[in-house]
Amino acid sequence: MEDPKRIVQEGYDQLSNRYRTHYEQLSPDRYSDWLTALAIRLPVKASILELGCADGIPTARFLSQQFDYLGVDLSPVQIQQARINVPQARFEIADMARLSFPGCSFDAIIALYSLIHLPVAEQPDLIKNIYQWLRPGGYVLCTVGASEWTGTDSNWNQSGASMYWSHTDAATYQSWFIGTGFTLLESYFVAEGNGGHTYFSLMK
């Protein structure tokens, strides 16, 4: 198989701002509800990291109004779009699996539909890193797999762009989070088309 991360990067590069159409086909209210619930819990001037920020909408645009926000994404095109869409926020091109931050750097870390673009073998180590990067009492919001699957789509959403996903099942993700030291606040299935994902809200 071609390098999975190259598939992901080139896929999001090719989609460019058409990815916004995909987001709008989901339920935008999901994001609003999740982000509003997080914002209420955070201290003033909280520091937030988003893994897989895409073009900055809606997460960066919403959170950077109140908080110190940093978004990272593998796609240079998505980061370029994000810097245009949300000029007050900070964005960097990066592979989330190779990031390095001092311990206790962030009050919240967000990974909505993004961890599952990493090969599943890399995900447990990233979850451990996320735990280390969070301050005590910090929060994680993420959406991951509901069932086990790894594969590609050569025409994602009929866009002509290829995309790669890799995820395990919800019970395994929960065991990884709890085993790392997180406290589970909320978890539920998020339907999408004929399948869906699992939403987790966690606290260190």
UniProtKB/TrEMBL annotation:
Keyword match Iron-sulfur: no
UniProt KW keywords: Methyltransferase, Transferase
One Pfam family of this chain: Methyltransf_23
EC number(s) from the headed UniProt entry: 2.1.-.-
GO biological process: methylation
InterPro entries to which the protein is assigned, alphabetical: SAM-dependent_MTases_sf
Coiled-coil positions: none
Enzyme class of the recorded protein, top EC level: transferase
GO molecular function, one term: methyltransferase activity
Name of the protein: Class I SAM-dependent methyltransferase
Upper lineage: Bacteria, Pseudomonadati, Bacteroidota, Cytophagia, Cytophagales
